[in-house]
Amino acid sequence: QVQLVESGGGLVQVGGSLRLSCAASGSIFSGVTMGWYRQAPGKPRELVADIAGGGSTNYRDSVKGRFTISRDNAKNTVLLQMNSLKPEDTAVYYCNFFISGPDVSYNYWGQGIQVTVSS
User: What's the confidence (pLDDT) of residue 59?
Assistant: First the structure.
């Protein structure tokens, strides 16, 4: 059973930075898509950014130019560098490892980590 463990969240002032990290235990297929989602109180969970096995990235419009996602396949880790944070970035952030194919298929979630941006 693979587990995802997030770290790096916390409280930061507007304009500050945080770096989230998510590490997977166990063996992970290198082609997995790694992503970060977030959920604010009373709102649905939304995709923040993801990075495919080949390295292509995808960001929601509101974080473009401020957030950067990266991955280290050797360490089964995905990072999210968050700069110029805004109060609307406040949420619980979840990492996700997903792959769906004929030979391998899984969808793993981390437990979530709180990010709070104070004004």
Answer: 98
